[in-house]
Amino acid sequence: MAEVVRALRLYWRLQRAAMRGALQYRLNLVIGIAAGVAYQGSGFAFVWVVMHTFPAVGGWSLREIAFLYGMRLTAHALYVLPFSSLIGLDWLVREGELDRVLLRPLNPLVQIMAKRLGVGQLGDLLAGLVLLVVALPPLGPASILFCLAAVVGGALVEAAVSLALASLALRTWNTLGVRAFADDLFSKFGSYPMSVFGGAAQWALTFLLPVAFVAYVPASVLLDRTGELNVPAPVAYGSPLLGVALFALAYRIWSRQLRHYQSTGT
User: Fold this and answer.
1) Residue 223 to residues 96, 139, 215, 217, 240, Cα–Cα distance (Å)
2) Largest CA distance in the chain
3) How far from 181 is each of 54, 177, 187, 229, CA to CA, in Å?
């Protein structure tokens, strides 16, 4: 536990330094955030246009889908902000740069995470929070706490899948394609009710790749729509804990792969 706290403290210090560096170029920071908001806003604008043609999609109203969209986007931004540097892991392995990381007496994953500050992802986070707040249904204190836990849990689900797939680069040297494919599935299918997809697709997006647990399952709990889920209600109410369990498993996979890492010699 002490090692985890030390790693988090180190990561926070490194990210504060990166943020101070980004603030030296305020215009670039503003443009990056604005671009993120515009990109994500255009995605929801498409949903808004569709919903004005069809009053409900999969039995969900525009406000309910906006809430689901906001939950997924916020969770995605919370995942990408600290883990965007994983996209460069293949390069670190192929070029032998990971050897330098491993020589330092610091947690290797924390060092990799601190290599890059995702400015554009701040725009994603802002867009997601705005959607989430605007579409938020009337909730009591317990439901609000569940919503916050669900967003963090959803971020951990995406982070777990990304970390587990990225760790394969320590053996195969090239995982960018499969990681991009998984990220595309989360982005394209995670913002919509699973009820709009066929039975086989619903099962795959729930149990093979846990896309449904990022936002759809917890949103269904908060919107009192648990009857349409593929999982029992108790599992749905415990969905935020799945992210914690999956990330712990992904970190074990990462640690195991790291023990068997062999330098490319470059």
Assistant:
1) 49, 9, 12, 10, 16
2) 59
3) 29, 6, 10, 25
Burial 200-232 (b: 16+ CB within 10 A, else e): eebebbbeebbbbbbbbbbbbbbbebbeebbbe
Check: CB of residue 112 under 8 Å from CB of residue 12.
no
> What does the pLDDT look like over 82-123, one tens digit per residue?
888 888 888 888 888 888 888 888 888 888 887 776 666 778
pLDDT, tens digit, for every residue of 164-213? Answer: 999 988 888 788 888 889 999 998 898 889 888 878 888 999 999 999 99
User: Counting Cβ atoms within 10 Å, is residue 193 exposed (0-12), middle (13-18) or buried (19+)?
Assistant: buried
Using CA atoms in the order 159, 160, 166, 170, what is the torsion angle rounded to 10 degrees? 140
- Cα distance between residue 60 and residue 193, in whole Å: 7
Task: Give the pLDDT confidence score for residue 100 in this predicted structure.
Answer: 87
Say if residues 243 and 152 touch (Cβ distance below 8 Å): yes
Single pTM value for the model:
0.88
Q: Torsions phi, psi of 260, nearest 5?
A: -100, 10
Name the nearest CA neighbour of 75 among 210, 200, 205, 170: 210
CB distance 138 to 227 below 8 Å = no
Are 124 and 76 within 8 A, CB to CB? yes
**Measuring CA to CA, how many Å separate 56 from each of 72, 144, 151, 251?**
19, 25, 24, 40
pLDDT digits (tens, 9 = 90+) for 251-263: 999 999 988 887 7
What pLDDT is attached to residue 3? Answer: 64
Q: What are the C-alpha distances in Å from 217 to residues 92, 99, 108, 204?
A: 36, 41, 33, 14
| 72 in Cβ contact with 154 (< 8 Å) | yes
